[in-house]
Fold this protein.
Amino acid sequence: MATAVWTGTLSFGLVTLPVRLYPATQPKDVRFHLYDREGRRIRYQRVVEAGAEPFSDRNELPRSDAAGDEDITPAREERAGTTASVETPVAWDDLVRGVETDEGELVTVPREELERIRPERSRSIDIQDFVELEQIDPVYLDKSYYAIPMTPEATKPYILFHHAMREAGRIGIGRFVLRTKPHLVAIRPMEKVLAVETMFFGDEVRDPADLAPDLDGVEVDERELDLAVTLIETLKTDWDPDAYADTYREELLRMLAERAPTKRAAEEPSPAGGSAVEELMAALKESVAAAQRDRTRKKAAG
């Protein structure tokens, strides 16, 4: 069963619809982990790269107050120096967030300042405008979600809103905060449900004219155009998503199914660390044995 990534309301005017958002897609890529040749899992550390020069004196950088569950202590000699000669692990509390400018300068921001301006999670998606879907180029669309009624009582107004949008030929444009990131969204009616599409903001979409500025001056021969249209007409068909499979993933899964599982290296048993009572008893027995040996030596000497 899919897990909702957000719960709240769709709001426009005085109308509110309680909904849950579910991811509309389910990537099925084969995810590999890294192991050594003996089957042991590879982990990563946060390190300062060897030879990295500090931007400024370390005391000038704001110290992060984030709590971490990892206890990585940097080498003392490297902490005291200015340049790391080897890759040095960095403790979580010594991390700060920063951005390197185009001029090569470093700007760091304390965690509490980021927390202060971070937007709060939205309880509603506020629809501000209704536009024609054809006016939005697909390049602006990012991720897709299904908005599903949260309660039985919300089903009828949900269906009414769905039908009204289809009848009007318009989709809603709104805003909300998912987790900690503000999103521009398009709410559109699908065959039976409402879809919520997160969108890129206008300044996030590149102008293609910056990449191919000389396309307007190219003239097209009429006969070549007719031939190209004829080819397209020959290959046209109805959209069927099941007709296009990920052949690479299928081949990869087949290969994995045919391979014998790798035998992992036997883990070395950790030394048994007996209880305090067991350790005490062992010490007492050794003491008694030593005392008996000492007494025997004294008798022999006397």
Notes: Helices lie at 76-80, 111-117, 155-168, 222-235, 247-258, 276-301. The chain has six helices and eleven strands. Confidence is low (pLDDT under 50) at residues 64-81. Residues 276-301 form the longest helix (26 residues).
